[in-house]
Amino acid sequence: MSWDKILIGTLLAGGLLTISNCKKEEHLQAEMIQLPTVSVAVKKISEQTARSRVEVVGTLEAVERASISARIAGQVIELPVVLGSKVEKGDLLVKISAGEISAKLSQAEAQLSQARRNLARENKLQKQGASTEETVKSLKDVAAIAEAAFEEARIMLDYTTVTAPFSGTITSKIANVGDIASPGNLLLQMENGDALQVLAQLPETLILKVTKGDT
Fold it and tell me: What is the pTM of this model?
């Protein structure tokens, strides 16, 4: 093969390569022109100290919570609330049969009245010289004991009626009318949902790092 033919072939190959590269560049320019413009936001960067965060498990509950139970034994004769009932402070929650306690109160009242009459009569006799100071003192003691018994019976009668200690919602109802209530046995539970608090266990290593007002 002559050098003339080799030179001509080389020139043709170079021309084809140049044409191919030009077409690729024109194609890339066409694609770049079709790309949409994008709006960007620019913000000023400032140096800050990153705050550490510790996650703990807690329980959300009402600040005011009450477990209602009876102070005396007896049959539940009134229970005007149900689960979810809204009650106001002082509303009746439970009433317990008070037949026996009412009888004791009447007896104590009668004994107190008798003791006071005896004391008044003896005071009158003492002033007339017909009684002694020792007798009067003894009757005063009897009257004091009778008054204490009457007050005890009156307080016991008050215990037959259980009222709401605050305004709230009945969240649990255990007792029903006809049940026998006894001291310490749970009858109802209630809470005030207007004020809530979170109770959580904090690791001892963090106690000294927590101050009042922290989020």
Answer: 0.58
